[in-house]
Predict the structure of DNA polymerase sliding clamp.
Amino acid sequence: MAEATHEESTHETRPDESPLHVVAPAATLRTAVDVLGALVDECRVQFDEEGLHVAAMDPATVASVSLDLDTAAFDTFDVEERTLGVPLERLDDVLSMASGDDPVSLALDPETRRLDVAVAGLDYSMALVDPDAIRSPPDLDELDFEYEASVVLEAEALSRSIRAADMVSNHATVGVEEEGEAFVVTAEGDTDDVRHRLSGEDLVDIDACEAESLYSVDYLRALDRPIPGGSEVSLELGTEIPLSLSFEVADGAGHVEYALSPRIARR
Amino acid sequence: MAEATHEESTHETRPDESPLHVVAPAATLRTAVDVLGALVDECRVQFDEEGLHVAAMDPATVASVSLDLDTAAFDTFDVEERTLGVPLERLDDVLSMASGDDPVSLALDPETRRLDVAVAGLDYSMALVDPDAIRSPPDLDELDFEYEASVVLEAEALSRSIRAADMVSNHATVGVEEEGEAFVVTAEGDTDDVRHRLSGEDLVDIDACEAESLYSVDYLRALDRPIPGGSEVSLELGTEIPLSLSFEVADGAGHVEYALSPRIARR
Amino acid sequence: MAEATHEESTHETRPDESPLHVVAPAATLRTAVDVLGALVDECRVQFDEEGLHVAAMDPATVASVSLDLDTAAFDTFDVEERTLGVPLERLDDVLSMASGDDPVSLALDPETRRLDVAVAGLDYSMALVDPDAIRSPPDLDELDFEYEASVVLEAEALSRSIRAADMVSNHATVGVEEEGEAFVVTAEGDTDDVRHRLSGEDLVDIDACEAESLYSVDYLRALDRPIPGGSEVSLELGTEIPLSLSFEVADGAGHVEYALSPRIARR
C-alpha cells in the first residue's frame, strides 16, 4: 500500500530513467545518517555496484568515520557509479517523517540534479551539495596503526564507561590491563576520580595487552550515541594511538568504523 | 466517591441556586479549551438551552473558530441563557488537575460573579472577563464562501502534510487535483521542495475539483494541534479563499470549524 | 555477578580495613539523596551502630530535615562511629549510574580520606567535605512545638493540594477544620482563589482540631517532590507554627521528618 502510493506519487521522477535509484528501510537510512551526523553536517556518498560507501572526518580532524552499506541493506539498488554530496540534517528531517521500517526511495533526478526522496505519499526534492566542496576524507590506508589490544563489548557497557568518565572530566583514559584481562576507562577530575573496569563475563571478548591512551570525553560521547542499542562494539586500542570503534548496522549488511585521535596527556 | 466529595466541597457555591451549573468529563472540557486556545487567550462562551457555543477570531484576524457543544456532551446542563468571558489559560490550569474523565463542575456564583470550578476535592474560584471587553467574533454568515472541493481524511494524514511543508517553508499550498482525485500539499523552500499527495485509500472521501490556495504553515500547525487523534477531518477548499477544517469532538456531541484565510502568493 | 564484579573492582579500597563500609540498594540511597537535596547541597552524615542520621537546615533557615536510616536498610553495615561531610549532587551523579536496586558500596578510604563509591564495575573516588565547614543543624529538641492537629494522607493527595495552591499564589494556607474533620489547603491569588479539601475516605487518618498557618508554596513543592509515590505522609499542624511532614523510606527501615516554618500572613 505504501509502496503503491509511492510509485504513483513519484511518477515525475521516473526512477527507471534515473542514473541512481535505491530503496531502503527508513531505519537503515536513519542509522546511517546518525552515524555520519556525529561528525559532519554533509558528506560525500559514493555509490558503486557493491553498495554505498562514505568516508568523512570531523572539521577539527580529531575523528573519522568509515561507513559501508552493502547492496543487501537495500530493497532496490540500481545505480551507476557516482558520488553525491548529501546534506545530512535535511535528509534526517525527511526520514523523521517515516515510521518504523517504511521503505524510503532515493532517486537522482537527471534534469534537476536533485535527490528525490519519497516515503509513503511524501515527495521531497533535495538540493545536493557539490561533492568537490566537501572536505576530502583522509586516505584511510595511511591510518593503519599497530593496535596492541582488542576488546568486544556490549554497546550499553561502553556507554556506561563513557558516562562514568563524563561525571568528573573532559578527558578519559581508555585502556586494557594485560593481567586481569580487563577493559578499563578512568578519568581524573578536580576533586573526584572514576574508574570503570570490565572483565570476564562483562566482556564479549578480549585480546589483552597492556595499552592505554587519553581521549576527549565529548568525542567519545558523540561516537557512542549513534551505536544501535544491543550492538556489539569492537575496540582496537594501543598506546598514544587512535582508538578504533567498529560495529555492524543494517542486520550485518552495513559496517561502521570510527577512529578517534588521542589527546596529549595533561597530567 | 469523587462526585460525593464534590457535592460536599462545593456546598458554598449552592449550584442549585446558580443561574448556570454544568458538569462535563474533564477530557471534553480540555479538548474545548485546546481548540479555542489555538487562536485566543480568552473568549465569549454563550450558553443556551441547546448547549454551549463559542465563536472567536485570532488577534491577527487570520483564522476563526466556531465551537458547539450540545447538551449531550454534559452530564449536567442547567443554565439560564447567558454569555461568560472565560480566561482559557487559567481554565486549562485547573483542568490539568483532573485525571482522565473526572467530572468537572462549572457553576456561576451569583454573588461574586465568579466561575466556581470543582473537580474531585478541588474548588477553584475563577474571576471571569467582561464579555464586552472581548473582541467580537465575525458574523459567520458573511463568511459563506463558495467552496469548490471537499476532502475528508484522517487527522494523522493531515498532520503529516503540514509537518512535511514545515520542513522547507513558512507557506504551504493546499489543494485538490481534479484528475487523480488527490489532496495535495506542496511547499517550496530556498533549496528544497516538498509535495505530499494523498488519493484513493489514503483518503476517507473526496469531492474533487481543481482548487488551491496558499496558507501560513504556522497557522496550519496551530489549527492541527488540537484535533483529537483518530478523528476524521473535513476540509473545504477553493482558490484564494479561506480553508475550512471541521471535526467532531465529545463523541459527536460537539462540532468544531476552523476557517483560515489564504496568504497572497509570494512567488 | 554484579557483587562479584564489585568485590574484584574495589580490591584497592580494602573494605575490610576501612573504618566505614556499607552496602545498600541504589534506590534507598537515591531516595535519601533526594530527600536531603531538597534543602541542602552538602550535609553531615553521622554513622553509628544504629545506622545513619542526618540533620540539616536550608541556607535560608526556613526548613529543616531529619533523616534516619536504620542498619536494616543496608545489606552491609560495618562502621566505626564517625561523621562525613557528603556532597549530595556528586553522589546523586554516581547513583544515576546504578540501575534499579543495584547494590552500591560506600567505603571510606583511610589513607586518602575519600569515599569510594562502587556499583557494578564502577569505582568512584569522591572527595568529602570537611564536616566542620557545614552549617550546624538546629538542635531539634528545641523545636518541640505543641501541634494541635494531625493528618495522615497519601503522598498523591498532598501533591494535588500543593499543585492546586501553586496555580494561583506563592503562599498557601494549610490547615484542619475541626468540624467536618477535613484537611484544607487554600490559596488566594490576584484574581482567583483555590481550595482543596479532603475528608473522610480521602484521608488515611485525622486527629482534627482547628488549626492553620501560611506557608511558602515553593518550599511545599520542594519538600513534596522527594516523597516516594505510594507513601503515606503524616502532617502535624498548628496555628502559626512550623508544619511537620514525616514519612517512611527504605520499606520502613528509614524515617524522614521535614519541618517548615510559617510565613507571616500578608493579607
